[in-house]
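Example 3.2
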Amino acid sequence: MQIIAGQIKGFFEDMLGGTHKDSFDYQFNTIHDYSLMGGLDGLIINYGTLGLQLKNETAEKFARKFNSIPTVFLTEIVHAHNCHSLICDNRQGIQLVMEHLIQEHNCQKILFVAGPAQNTDANERKKTYLEMMAKYHLPVKPKMIAQGDYSEFVDKQIEKLLDDNPDAQAIVFANDEMAFSGYCVCEKRGLKVGKDILITGFDDCERASGMEPPLTTIQQDGVLMGRMAVYDLVDKLDGKNVLSRRVPVSLCVRESCGCQEQLPEIQNTPVSLTEQIHKLNRTITNMKLELISFQRRSWFIPSLARSLNDCMEDEYAFLLEAMENMRELRTKCTYLFLLDEPIVYHQNEKWICPQNLRLAAYYRNEEVDAFHFYDRQPVTDQKGICQLMSDDERHQFMIFLLFSGEKQYGLLACDIQQEEFPFFYVISLQIGLSLHYLEISKAEARRRQEMSRDLELVRERNRVLGFISKYDELTGLLNLRGFTEQIKKLCSSEVNQRAYIICGDLDHLKEINDTWGHPAGNFALQSVARILGGRLRSQDTLARVGGDEFMILLNCEEENFQDIFRKRVKDACTVFNTESDKPFLVEISLGIAEFRPKPDTDTQEIIALADKDLYEAKKHRRKSVRRPES
């Protein structure tokens, strides 16, 4: 089984309403970490474009995350244990370009647009440029070099470069993407590329040959590099000693450097012409088929969105519908993995890969199935993603991250052909967006359910209390008057059972108010109400009877209830404070008094006993609730 981690930088940004500046493409940089759950034997990582986004992480540090298994790094040199590198011969490439410009075109003033400083390819290409200029005794001044970022958004750097060097004869770009920007700048200035100024690139990407004029560049053999990577990884898995090595490159001469591209001669014979006509007809037919396929698929996206939107009330139905759509697309097989809870990842925060990934649904062998939450198999060290997707056939999976904005939901693994990747990338974006809507729908359903339950409780209390104002405005709990009525009601019931009055105080309310303001104090009081309320049954009574004072009335025959209840509240405070982003801790001191309710019970005496116990508990509270700095 082979897994390919999918990522596209800036793909379909215009269609999706994103921009280069504020898109959420940084989410793709996390997908490699999910491979640690894969149960893989080995890993091949194309670090080139990924490394440009890892602003605060070196290649060595990144490599150490994956060196628990044999790993091959493409386009980057690493020295971590269990890793080795395959990188193109950058030195040879720049040498070929420079010698061509100097020897064939007699260029003396050659400018250079460098790539990002943290990138090995970029550094080697810049260094070789300087060496070649020195070899031919050509002067280089700092203003002859511009600092780029490997993107085609370097217009300003190129504008300044040309302003500072109006007599430049050629510009050598460290990659093709930045050369595209150079074309645009030259066109604005009325400079004809290949005549007024010569331009070369590096990489020979798909657009290079179709530019006007076609771009002279250094051609990397991606197929060869991929084949070498697989062979090296297999050798490493066999225990062989594999050394890092470089992949040879070649100069692809086109018209941007001033050369005239040599076109193949066309034999003017009837047979040749007939073959050309047949070839043209086949090309037109293929284009028509591709157009029909594109039209069908373009209709699929809104259809998918609509069908998933119809399942927002039922997650299980949602998952089945998603897999049914994968069946309709005729994928060989598809697996959908979901996190237990979506995680929020902000671009400038430290990324921690989640560990709670589960198989939620799949389509394979014409079978579609989905799992309810508690039936989903977790991804573990012993049973990784690959093991959960294994069967008797060989697969090549494209892995897509499912996210919407800053939230990640899981992974989609599809066995598809490489040329289908862009279309399924858009499919994954739609599923991620639909999962976001599903999350909102589930939250809204819970909110309505809670509102219904709370409303019913309020109605019942209002009916019993005769709609008398007995509630605390801040927390919505009973006030002292309402609590007193409940005590009287319990004692008059003449049910001889064990009961408790519990006094609770929010620790250091004054410190919170004085340090962070009364809104913070109100938040803390409301939080106490939720924490205590979450530990009680619907028949128990909770009230706020003063500034930071809460009281609880309940009956319970549970042994060791007092110790158990204290621990429940303490644990709940710990969970709350762990999840809270406030600079202070919310903690509660408790005093508990036990009694047997009777009509003649002196409830004030019971309250006094609970208050005395509370006083003892307060002796052991923190001196301050300021959150310790980590």
